[in-house]
Write a structure and sequence with these properties.
Layout (H helix, E strand, L loop, with lengths): L1 E8 L5 H15 L5 E9 L2 E8 L2 H8 L2 H10 L8 E6 L14
Antiparallel strand pairs: 1-3, 1-4, 2-3
Length: 103
């Protein structure tokens, strides 16, 4: 299982529009094959996303897909800087999938 955790910082005047763009992308991304979970939370102008995919192929399909491309086209002017993105295999947690941690 592949997990992505991303943090985005909105420009103060763009936070509400960024939230709208994220909601649109999240709804579309949840329908993509191999997506196990996709969501975000917001604290002021900071947004954190969590994504889980069954494998690298599903993750790659999302990263090359229409939903993410449309999101970044809409979100570009709303962001205060580049997103921070961590992508790695799941070690433990979430209550589904295979854990690499000891029992």
């Amino acid at each position: 299982m592949i997990v992505i955790v991303a943090t985005l910082q909105a420009r103060p005047e763009g936070a509400s529009a960024l939230e709208d763009a994220l909601q649109t992308m999240v709804r579309a991304s949840r329908q993509e094959p191999g997506t196990l979970a996709y969501g975000f939370c917001r604290d002021g102008e900071t947004f954190a996303l969590a994504e889980c995919y069954v494998d690298e192929a599903a993750c790659k399909a999302h990263s090359e897909g229409a939903a993410l491309k449309a999101f970044f086209e809409a979100a570009g002017p709303l962001l205060a800087g580049a997103p921070t993105i961590i992508q790695a295999p799941l070690v433990d947690g979430f209550g589904f999938g295979t854990s690499k941690a000891g029992a």
